[in-house]
Each structure stands twice: as structure tokens, then as C-alpha cells.
Specification:
By secondary structure, the chain is α/β, with parallel strands linked by helices. It has helices at residues 2-20, 47-59, 73-79, 93-96, 138-147, 158-166, 177-187, 213-228, 231-239; strands spanning 24-29, 38-40, 43-45, 62-67, 83-85, 100-101, 106-107, 110-115, 131-134, 152-155, 172-176, 192-195, 203-204, 207-208. It has two domains: 2-107 and 204-246, D-Maltodextrin-Binding Protein, domain 2 (3-Layer(aba) Sandwich); 110-195, 3-Layer(aba) Sandwich (D-Maltodextrin-Binding Protein, domain 2). The protein starts with a helix and ends in an 8-residue tail after the last helix.
């Protein structure tokens, strides 16, 4: 009997050690980017939040979310080995010089929000126009390429840019497709419309410090498992009013 008790105690101690040894990964993100990350009733919510929690469960680590400005996320990942970035972050060659990226998990191409009746239909129509975008995003870079830095207005959030469009301070706003769709659905403003002007494809990925390839492998393996299980279809139904946003 004493031997059985001793074995049980040993097993409990091993389990406790295993639980205590669970790695905690800090998630740097900007919770002002619905439907990917936002705050609701004091809690972090969104597509990316659900995704990271599911990845952590698969990969066997804990997560701690740390809110910050979008343009600070990359620097945070660069300087901290056990920090990852997820905030609707597009995979670009320039960013890959500083951080590693997971496999892309959603293609959120860029679209343009304009006032109905403005007559803007193509990217050429936007040249010389005042365009708004969130600072440091691929939308910001696309706006600069189209209309020049002098005509590109940058904002802390896409919602701030949309408000200036409503107030006739901008001619257009460039935004990631699912984000733009979610914003307009929430505003219910019939004067605003979305136009697909054939801008770039925009794959989102999870940023990982270049000195942590083991963590990158865990994340990629978890993404493959989640895809095979149909998890991304579940997220699309939960967060997008139009499933085309997830295609």
C-alpha cells in the first residue's frame, strides 16, 4: 500500500512539474483592429485572439497578451525572443528582414472605401487624391505608392480614417478587406461603399523572433492541424459577415 501511495505521490509531483514548466509566450498586438483584435466588455476578442489561443493549446504553451501601438509590434518581437506578434500583420519582404513569419493564415487583400458617387473606380483615379490609412500597415505603403506621401494621411486606427472620410477630409481610405467590411457593417452608413481596385494580395502571418526557430516550427505545425480540422472555416463564420473575406 505504501508503495502505491509513493507512486501516486511521485506521479502527482511529475504532473505539477510539467504544469509549472509550461512556457509562457507574450503576444504583442494592437487591439484596435476589428474583427481581428478588439476590446469588448474589458476582454480581448477577435479572430487573431481565438487563433493564438488555439495555437497555444496545440503547441503546449501559455499566452499573455500585451497591447501596444501597431507600429511597435515588430520592434517588440525583434528584441524579445519569447514574444510573438499577431495583429493582422501582412507578410512582406521588408518585414522578413527583421522577423520570421509563420505560414500565411488568411489572404486579406486591400480594398478602397470611398463616398458613393465620388466617381473613383480605379487605382489611377486615386492619384493625387487624399488617401487615409493606418500608420505602418501595407495600406499605408499602398497609399503612398499611389498618391505620394504628401497626400497620404496616417491614423492610429482605420476607424479614425473612416471618420475623416465621412467628414469629407479624405477622398478614400485603403484598408484590408475583412477589416473594411466589418467597419462598414458596424457603421451602417449607406454613403460609404467598398471598391476592389485590384490592389495587392495581403497574407497575414504571425511574427516570431529570428532566434526562436523552435517556436516558429511549433506555430506552423499547429496551423496545419487547425486547418485540417476546419478551424479557419469556424473563424470565418464567427467573425466575417461575408465568407468571401476569408477566401
Amino acid at each position: 500500500m505504501k508503495k502505491v501511495i509513493a507512486i501516486l505521490v511521485s506521479l502527482m509531483m511529475l504532473a505539477s512539474v510539467a504544469m509549472a514548466a509550461a512556457e509562457t509566450i507574450v503576444v504583442a498586438f494592437n487591439p484596435e483592429y476589428p474583427p481581428f483584435e478588439y476590446v469588448e466588455n474589458g476582454e480581448y476578442m477577435g479572430y487573431d485572439v481565438d487563433l493564438i489561443k488555439a495555437i497555444a493549446e496545440k503547441a503546449g504553451f501559455d499566452v499573455e497578451f500585451e497591447a501596444m501601438a501597431f507600429d511597435a509590434v515588430i520592434s517588440e518581437v525583434m528584441t524579445k525572443k519569447d514574444t510573438i506578434g499577431v495583429s493582422g500583420i501582412s507578410i512582406t519582404e521588408e518585414r522578413k528582414l527583421n522577423v520570421d513569419f509563420s505560414e500565411g493564415y488568411i489572404n486579406a487583400g486591400l480594398i478602397v472605401v470611398i463616398k458613393d458617387g465620388s466617381g473613383l473606380a480605379t487605382a489611377d483615379d486615386l492619384k493625387g487624391k487624399k488617401i487615409g490609412a493606418q500608420l505602418g500597415t501595407t495600406s499605408d505603403f499602398a497609399a503612398e505608392e499611389i498618391t505620394g506621401r504628401e497626400n497620404t494621411e496616417t491614423y492610429k486606427t482605420f476607424l479614425d480614417a473612416i471618420k475623416d472620410l465621412q467628414g469629407n477630409k479624405l477622398d478614400a481610405v485603403i484598408v484590408d478587406k475583412p477589416v473594411g467590411m466589418a467597419l462598414l457593417a458596424g457603421l451602417a452608413d449607406d454613403s460609404l461603399i467598398i471598391v476592389d481596385m485590384g490592389l495587392q494580395a495581403d497574407w497575414y502571418g504571425i511574427e516570431v523572433n529570428k532566434e526562436n526557430p523552435e517556436l516558429l516550427e511549433k506555430i506552423n505545425n499547429a496551423l496545419k492541424e487547425l486547418e485540417a480540422e476546419g478551424f479557419f472555416e469556424e473563424l470565418a463564420v464567427k467573425y466575417f459577415s461575408n465568407e468571401e473575406a476569408a477566401e
